[in-house]
Structure prediction request, 491 residues.
Amino acid sequence: MNNENIWKPHPRQEFALERLEHEILFGGARGGGKTDALTVWLTDYINNPRYRALVIRRNAEDLSDWVDRATRFYTGLGAKIGYRPAIIEFKSGAVIRTGHLKDDQAYTKYQGHEYQRMAIEELTQIPDEKRYLQLIASCRSTIPELKPQIFCTTNPGGVGHGWVKKRFVDVGSPDTPYIDPISGRSRIYIPATVQDNPTLIENDPAYVKQLDALKGTDIDLWKAWRLGSWDTFAGQFYKEFKLGFHTIKYYFPFKSNVIVGGLDWGRTDPFSTHFTEIKTIEFEGAKFFRATTFAEIYGVDKMPKEWGEIIKQIISNYNLDLSDTSWIRCDNQIFNPGLDKSKSIADQFVDYDEKFRTLLKPASKERIGGWENLHNWLSVAPDGLPYWQISEACPNLIRTLPALVHDENKVEDVDQAGESHAPDALRYQFKHLKWIDAKLGGIVHPGGEKTQLRTAEFIGSKQVAIDLKAFETPTLPAITSESGVGGVIHH
Prediction:
């Protein structure tokens, strides 16, 4: 490596600097020495006059911090630093440019450029994978001796936590190359913790104690910052969500129970629809509702008619019909006609099937209350299970719900820059479901008598009274058939 007389890598840093994969993600916990490694990694080709690199950080303030650190390092190599934005020029003519992600369109300014190396600090601050792919499309090389590579650093957390975890962490074991089956490009995740940075420990021994102090006050934050855990992270909105506890195997609903849906419209952004069964559970004298989200429709670039066909097909896999659904709560905007006075999205669904006329209902616009309501449903019921469980037939909901983060400017809300289409669809429907804390008396009649409930009490519509027995789960033989999307159905 260049500059060994100035800076010597620790073993984890050296391992990262020697990698040949196209994409490298280095870090995970705080204090692992990732920024120093990135700064040195950029110097490999500085003696080539045609070398161009790009450093990306979240905002101008963070970028200034990196430039200050880089200036101290690169000036020792004879580099000159220009500003607004910072440009680092070496004697050979090699150039390192910098940029920040101040808005959604910031990525487009690099389109058409060629950067043989691209460094991205705090990768999880990029909201979605699409923008990341658009950004790294500019990392390419027409110069044989300059191999294009991307070097990313991050800690768990941030609005892009979910897609970064899926792309780098979940695809395989740490320190092991992964070959993307579509692009054929390689990538690797290299974890590092403060223990991998002896220089920091020697110069600031109290830093480790500072991290460990979190264990007694916020165990999840401690796991993320100290251990580099990707299962919980700083800023996570639904920290209580746990795979294997809130998720179950593919589930077959019963017509005798209430079926409701939620729909979040999207064309270039994902379209998301989910269906949930509501049933009554009796446990040690307490009765409460349990919700099971059993079906998911998710995708892009389809017309309402096409989505209508898919919705009907998916719910038919569960031996259900549109008429078995009480309602589908939707984003209010789908009921508005287009600017050219064309038919609304809702009317286009109705054109496909008249049943959608009574099924599609406007959802509450109250975001804060909607998100808070999901906290209630994720809590633990008297029988030790959550009030709300999600079938594995809903992979996008399971992926994006725990990845939601707090909005920094409005902590009671989620950061809307993240991928929230599936959670939005659930927020729409659950805002119109009545959650009852069975631990505080639940729905047992004060006199101890079995009571009747009106559906208005828990699905927000005025219908006839329904006896609780109508919501009890009947005993049926196990169903083990597999039928594709929405398939693999059993209890």
In short: The radius of gyration is 26 Å.
